[in-house]
Each structure stands twice: as C-alpha cells, then as structure tokens.
Amino acid sequence: MENKTPEVASTIKVSSLTCIDLANSDLHQSAVLLKQACLDCGFFYVVNHGLSEELKDEAFEQSKKFFALPLEEKMKVLRNKKNRGYSPVLDQILDPENQVHGDYKESFFIGIEGPKDDPHGDKPFYSPNTWPDPDVLPGWKATMEKYHQEALKVCKVIARILALALDLEADYFDTPEMLGNPIAVMRLLHYEGKSDPSKGIYACGAHTDYGMMTLLATDGVMGLQDKEMKPRKWEYVPSIKGAYIVNLGDLLERWSNGMFKSTLHRVLGNGHDRYSIPFFVEPSHDCIVECLHTCQSKNNPPRYPAIKCSAYLTQRYEESHVDLSIYEKQT
Questions:
Q1: DSSP secondary structure string for all residues of 30-71
Q2: Per mean pLDDT, which range of 50-59, 154-163, 276-285, 318-327 is the poorest?
Q3: Tally of CB atoms within 10 A around 227
C-alpha cells in the first residue's frame, strides 16, 4: 500500500475493498465474495492473477519513455478516428459540467488487431494499431503487445467468476458474441499537474467506464478516487503491491439490470507525475447487450433498452473527446 505521512494519512479517506484470489480453486466461494463487492461499490482487487511483476514493470518503463518524448514526436502518432494512438493533454473531457478544461492527462490507445483476412478487421474497434517509430523506441511494440495478451487472459478469468456471481454458467461470457471475440483496449496514461476541484481542474474528470470491466495497474502514486454508494462521498483507492484494481463498467450494469453498478470515479493530481495502465474489456463489436435472464423478473423488469456494444462505445468516445479537426488547424 502507498506510503503516506501521518499528517496526510489523517486527512485522506481511503476505500476498503474486497480482494479476490484468482488462484482460489473454489470458484463459487470467489463468486460470493465478488458479488458482494459488486453490490457494495463496484471496485475490488485481484491477486494471484498470473501477470508477472516483471512484465508490468517493463510496460510502465516503456510507457514513461514514450511520454518523455518531445511533443512533436508524440504527435506523429496522434490518435486516429478509430481511437488508436496518442491523445494529448486536454484531449478528453469526462465531466463537462464540473471541468473548466479537459483532463490534465495524456494517453496512448492500443487495441486488438484482427488478422488481415478477419471479417471484423474493418470495424473500428478491431482496426490496426498505430505504433511509435521502432528506431526511437526499440522493443516498445513487443512489450505492449505482450502485456495486452496477458491482461486479457486475466480479464477472462474474472469474467468467469462474474458469470457465477450473476447466477450464470461460468462459461457464459466465453461465447464468440461476447468475450470470444472481445473489444479490449489498453490505455497508457500520464497525469500531470495539481488538481483543484474548486476551480474545475482535474487530472481526470468524474466518469463511469463504458464497457464490461476495467483492469487497472497503477504506479503507487495516490490519485484515484471512487464515489462510495453509501454514503455518497469520494474516497481514495490505494494501490496494493502485486494486486490489480478492477472496476465495473456501464455495459455490465445494463446486463445486470442495475444490480451491479458502474461506479463513478476520478483522478486528482497532487503535483507529482502519475502513470497508470487501465485495460478496458468489452464484448464483441456486434454483441447486443440486454438484461440477463437471471437479473429480471415480473416484479423487476428490464430497466435499460437493448443496445449494440459498438454503438454505445462509439457514442461515449465521441462525446468525451475533442474533434480531431482541431489538431489539423494547429499544424
């Protein structure tokens, strides 16, 4: 857990989250714990996940190398219309009602690449990635591709426990329409500056995540806050060495008919550089997300209309990012 001085520790409210052991052979026991965590706050930790500390450390090291490049070099891989590549500071605004400017963060999007003959290859969330020049950052692409593969494996294990927590068969989400052909986006993040909520300045504005779940690796610098459901207050989510933070997204809330909440969260900058790697997992491009049969009844009918996964994600991305034409005008 992060180190804090006694003075700071006495004033910071910290979340106490459930820790799920992914090596536990009793999946039903894990499902009971996970279900309670999802009902309580929608955030939890996972340990014994199989993703090596060495690979995670290398991904963070390579991430820092990219963000340390001159802006001119980073802008060579500016994100495209399919959300692959570099996103500059203030490119995204997640809480326009409370933010004066956009988020004080820069990021880099990496998604799943389908083979050239893949029938899904022309769809936005399966399109080719944009990579930095290998002469500038040797080994960068290989590290990120390896991390992406390993993080997806972890998420699929969590999905099996989530299925049990929703009174489904463990392999429910394994079908091609769901996580058999998922949308999975890894985002490298670098936060900078000091936030001041009273002035509408945030490292990352308050928001919910769009998809099914997010697997989050952090560098240990305090900043992430979730909004507790009872009472409704902001609390810091500390890092625990060897553990990943997981939070639920909007699509899982829709699947569960609102039983499992997509929790509001934000990041406050404290003047120190902060790095993190969220890994966002969603079902397939064409998956129709609608209330699960185990989450509805005569007295509890579906609360949300059915929606196509790609349509919902596209809408949320477009709402929160600036129009790319603004960068064309600056060049």
A1: HHHHHHHHHHHTSEEEEES-S--HHHHHHHHHHHHHHHTS-H
A2: 318-327
A3: 17
